Amino acid sequence: MILQIISFPNSRAVPSQYSTFKGSDTGEAIYRALEKFHLITVDEDTTLIIDKSSCFKRIAQDDPMCRYYRGRIGDIFRIRNPNSVNYRMVVKPTVSGVVKKTLAMEATAELYYKAFNTAIAMLMARQRPDDAKVTDSLRISQADMEKIIANENYETLSLDTIPNKHGQMMFVRFINREAKDKSFARLKNEYISPEIGRIITLYNALPNVTPVESVDDADLSKKVDIIFIYNNSKGALIPDLKLTSDYAQLFSVQQLSFDITKYAEQPEFTLLDPVVDRAEIRDQYRQNGQVISREDTLDSFNLKENNKIIAI
Known about the structure:
The protein is α/β, with parallel strands linked by helices. The protein has 2 domains: 4-52 and 289-311, Phosphatidylinositol 3-kinase Catalytic Subunit, Chain A, domain 1 (Ubiquitin-like (UB roll)); 96-257, Dna-directed Rna Polymerases I, Ii, And Iii 27 Kd Polypeptide, Chain: A, domain 1 (3-Layer(aba) Sandwich), CATH 3.40.1340. It is 25% helix and 21% strand. The strands form 3 sheets. It has a 5-stranded mixed sheet, sandwiched between helices. The chain has a 4-stranded mixed sheet with strand order 4-6-5-11. The longest helix has 21 residues, at 184-204.
């Protein structure tokens, strides 16, 4: 049988030539196959677990909290309430194509001030603790924001090259234009697409990176994470770029005018880091799957073709 063997924390799939086994093979055979695949190091803590992701509690990728932390399909959230701790795995969005119509609200300097500081909080939540570039010192006063908006100096609100927990570089861009019904194509063609090109140039100038060739580069979503923030004072229905792209999100100033994590009854969400929180992620897979020890034969698990085995 051919098994899908996925190695965490880098989520790399083992090539098929190392993934074919007989029912009489033991877990040891899988370990040996992993060790032959030189891009993966099997250490003493590595555990083989039959993936049963369907047993996880779930959170949709378009859930507001998941969007805030930039949860990706397969990621795990720790959700801490006053009396309990729960875990949820990110799954496909519940809708596609559009975000819900938002409340019509004029985009004042005060609204931009709140949105910018919410964006700072989002970046602080997404960045790696051991490489924190975003701090409270980047917040700006409402008086300074009033000057920026009055002079239309939106480019001064840009933020660049901030490492996140997925190993990508984050970028933030504020779009100086009003979103209107059915104008998303113009918004995308006139601003978003050219700006992505400029961001790719900035990324390629970083030291020790593999250059991105174009917006169509298959690896782009593994390298950059872009937040576009635009004005939607009419509350128009605008397609959500997140649902068609793994490298960019679209938020309105109106959406970010309040920090959803500060809501009084909101539990504490933490997106588990594949490297820092590896042991905690492993424990969740243990609880929701089946562990294969080195001595276990594969026949004893009733495995089927293309069953996924997590090496974590």
